[in-house]
Amino acid sequence: MPLVFAESQFTESGIRYADQTGISYQFPRRYRTLIQPGENFIYYRGRKKLRGRQLPVYFGAGVVGSVTSDVSDRDRMVCEVLSYRPFDTPVPFKSDTYGYLEVGGSRRGYFQPGVRRISLEEHDAILKRAMGGLPEKLAQMEGSEARGLSALRMAKVAAQTADYSKGQIVERTVKRKDLDIGFEDLVAYIEDLIERQNGRCALSGLELQFDAVEADVEALVLA
To answer: Model confidence over 44-60: pLDDT tens digits?
Structure first.
């Protein structure tokens, strides 16, 4: 599920984090199970700032890259930020008409966690507001951009499959799967593979459909 990454000058607890917007995100180790390579996220800036208060807003979006332990603090971890897209205009966390953009926003203490899950519908609603009509913009994408979205999604599925298939025992023992390639390299490989196949299925020869511009969802390129 998509995530929200809080990034503020100061947190309510007064703790500071060594974030580099659009490059890397530092977080407490307790969020490790939430933050997985390939996961989509939206940046959120809270109310507290150096002096006084400000309107909480969402100000960008990205994809989680590699996740590593922080060498300077054993209680913290760091993830790469891939495909960062700053919003031209920050999106207020609350609408006068529709209320909070995150469904749980009215609950006391909801916004305190630095990392939280949101639904795909909440994620897409925030992006739609940020991009001034997301469906229309996506529909006008050039083929290379749409292919890039598809490649990113497929790489995400592959990364998650490898991450969760380490020979653990559930109802049965799953086959061990390892991803012996970096996430960005995997995205590039998938895009190159699609290009070399001229946008067609290697087995059937049928033309593939891509994220955001598909005319036939049954032909949508999947991982």
So the answer is: 998 766 566 778 999 99
